[in-house]
Amino acid sequence: MPDYPIVDAWIQHPTSLFMRQPMFESVLRWMRLETVPDSVPLDLTIAALDAAQVEVAITTAWYAPSGAIISNDEVAAQVDTSKGRLRAVAGVDLRRPMEAVREIRRAVANGFVGVRMLPWLWELPPDDRRYYPVYSTCVELGIPFCTQVGHTGPLMSSEPGRPIPYLERVAIDFPELKIVAGHVGFPWTNEVISLARKFPNFYVDTSAYKAKRWPAELIEFLRGPGKAKVLFASDFPMITPSACFEGLDALELDPKTLRLLLRDTANAVFRLALP
User: Fold this and answer.
1) For residue 16, how many other CB atoms are within 10 A of its CB?
2) Global pTM value
3) For 211-242, how does the pLDDT look when each residue is reduced to its tens digit (9 = 90+)?
4) In terms of CATH architecture, what is 6-269?
């Protein structure tokens, strides 16, 4: 492990409502979780961060067509309780564009550092018109738009997670928008990498994958022109940060690349102001 604290660019502190969603049945099987507790103490999440030497984790709200699964206010309360260990990323209701814009502004005024929307959850690809007020507000406020690319673990269609043409159109229409594409993009990893090469403000995070399972194309990109384009992330509680480090040493990344991956790129993209 490095001798500096790490940033995890995607977690969520699970609520009972979140864990009980029928779409997560497959994820719960992978986690070998047979029963869902009524509540999950924040201390358990902080302990998982401590075990992996994670100083700051970016925790996210979840909004679906049915409403808030983890609300922005719940995330804000988690951040307040975490004593600096968590930073918040907002979600919004895409069906109400002006409310979404106002909610993003409210969240950022209260310290939120980005917006995350999951196209598969809305069954709307990210070039749908309903996202565009969100993108323009993110540009205006200087915060990244975070999303999921590739296949879905939950029992939902993966089609909205195709990087090309959907996210490519967004990057063309909003060249100033910082986009963080999560989950390495499998099975479309080459498409994700091509977008990160093409667009200066396009990034990839490694959430939901152990280092030993990172696609070879991503490792090659990370070792070369993508040194400052890849962010470490776990997707806790689906997988712990410690588990995500399995196989990292075997990649033999040089110290500069490793620090960019584990800390500095996330620090810059989310403007965390860490030393």
Assistant:
1) 11
2) 0.94
3) 999 999 999 999 999 999 999 999 999 899 99
4) Alpha-Beta Barrel (3.20)
